[in-house]
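Re: folding output
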Amino acid sequence: MTLEEQITGNLKTAFTPSMLNVINESHLHAGHAGDDGTGESHWRVEIASDAFEGQSRIAKHRAIHAALGPEVMGRIHALSLQIK
């Protein structure tokens, strides 16, 4: 299973999103700090879910980090989140 599949699966399971885009932006950071050469170090997630209703921005970010879990988060250098 690829990292993209893990991210997508974890987020779908946790939040049943109405919209989810998982975008690998690692190629934009090749050779920069945090680029581990795997091509899977920098990610952008765009997600919309009713599960985030009433939560603060920080709570939403924490929920996503928790849903991804330490295994996935340990493989990511940078994660950009757009939460609706």
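--- second protein (sequence, then structure) ---
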Amino acid sequence: MKTIKSSIYTLLLLALAACNSTQSLQEYYVDNSENPNFLSVDLPVSLLNMKKTDLTGAQKDALESLRKLNVLAFKKTDDNVAEFEIEKAKVKSILQHKRFNELIKMNTSYGKATITYLGDDDAIDEVVIYGDSEEKGFMLVRVLGENMNPAKIAQFIQALQKSDYNGEGLEKIGELIKG
């Protein structure tokens, strides 16, 4: 009898600890990758076709610091308005955790957006771009790398403009944005 009570007590403590733990962004991606309201795409940096591009040394360093892009998008419809609000609140709660450093907030023609990062100011491991629109839904983009530097990210954007990447792999996301 004592062991049953002890086991139940242990299980309750574990359940309570699990309820109190904050879900990570990676867990959120995994949990929703099969949800029909979400579109999930993982893009290797190699898909950007930048090997043939004439890059400066700084741009090559920036490219080498990147590993992949994870995209998770929620398409809002008339049938999932309540779930949209719930999922949007979950994402905002995750991104408000003290581990995330806010880089910028902006209003765009599509809706509101924020860019945050994990890591140190000079050695960023993950950049997260989040944007939402009350009409269309929301999108999360995780830019994963090792020791990324904000200046190098700007170099990467310049290099991307030189590349011959024309959106392969992003067709469904484009459809989501267009509506």
